[in-house]
């Protein structure tokens, strides 16, 4: 079935779902399957719950009636449907990728843009080959700008997502040591993320770039760019002027002081990018300021949280060598006394895992940190020379130690990959 034919069913529906738990009356339910699941099994259940149509790619679950739609590949049909829908709109579509800071930057940009425009943006981090199409299908007649986050862990993935979303404007947060197992090297990361640049170059799109990132500058030669940075040579000049009393990032843009709710020096670039997007779309600085200052992270990303006993820096959503180093350096520079580290393994590093975890330990040993809790099998393999390190196989095994230790009046950084689930430890701090 062609995308345009499936589109007629979409227009008669109340929206698309790929999870039977999210069925509403009138939903177009697309049955996806993978290595360990078969969504076709839930076709009948979806109809019982009120779905108007079900899209199946398994003959065993296909019934010859008006409510069953048979396709060769449900995933490809979803992606083609999303692309067809996106092409019905001549609005700006922003593609956003990078190794670190994607979701925080996306939320900041959306907070700024929504001060003046109706936006449709990626919810959470639904940024893969399924999440991107679902976000695109949420675009409607009221949408003035779409903001699409794109994640990738191997080459050609951004190329696919860009082809589906057809962005008119793109931004890469950075090139870092994330998903090295899939990309193979930092050079592979640069190549993979730069697939967004390549799409924009072929389709007369605009690249928004960080003028201080030489890789971004070099990767966008002979392309239309809109740049930001501390240099006066950038299209938009933004100054990192201060840290507030509680270490909040404070910037200066168009002679306007903007006090964010974000902490950590690495967040300056994320904030600056959001300011630049606001400038690109000619949003008044007063509204840009309002959008930046209104954003408060609530997703385990750069959250500062005060308990009855301690101050926690909760950054437990994701971790890779680049983001871990940045978080540590920012934490050390805060000059807070009585610092404690709780670090979890950085996942998806493949053959680089031993080397990169040891580098983090070596960095920590140059600092005077009272206690360091290392959690996970990779950190357990590292060599440490000071007595401050405590190693645990997993998050749960660290809980009895925290209960016994009962930290008081400490500033504690909690940082690790999502799979380590460090956020549960905050209840014991």
**CATH architectural designation of the largest domain:** 3-Layer(aba) Sandwich
Q: What would you call the structural class? A: alpha/beta
Q: In order across it, which strands form the biggest sheet?
A: 6-7-5-8-9-10-11-12-13
Low-confidence stretches: none
Largest sheet: 9 strands, mixed
Give the CATH superfamily of the largest domain.
Mur-like, catalytic domain
Multimerization status = single chain
Q: Which CATH class of the largest domain?
A: Alpha Beta
Number of domains: 3
The termini sit apart by 55 Å
Helical percentage: 25-40%
Q: Which radius of gyration do the C-alpha atoms yield? A: 23 Å
The overall average pLDDT, rounded, is 90
Describe this structure in words.
The protein is an alpha/beta fold and 429 residues long. It has 3 domains: 3-74, Udp-n-acetylmuramoylalanyl-d-glutamate--2,6- Diaminopimelate Ligase, Chain: A, domain 1; 89-294, Mur-like, catalytic domain (UDP-N-acetylmuramoyl-L-alanine:D-glutamate ligase); 303-428, Mur ligase, C-terminal domain (Protein-Tyrosine Phosphatase, Chain A, Alpha-Beta Complex), CATH 3.90.190. Helix content is 34%, strand content 21%. The protein has helices at residues 3-11, 43-48, 74-86, 102-113, 131-136, 157-165, 180-183, 186-193, 195-202, 214-219, 267-280, 285-294, 321-333, 353-364, 377-380, 395-405; strands spanning 16-17, 28-30, 53-56, 68-70, 93-97, 119-121, 145-149, 169-172, 206-210, 225-229, 236-243, 248-253, 256-263, 303-306, 311-315, 339-344, 371-375, 389-392, 411-415. A hairpin with a 4-residue loop joins β14 (303-306) and β15 (311-315). The model has no long low-confidence stretch (mean pLDDT 90).
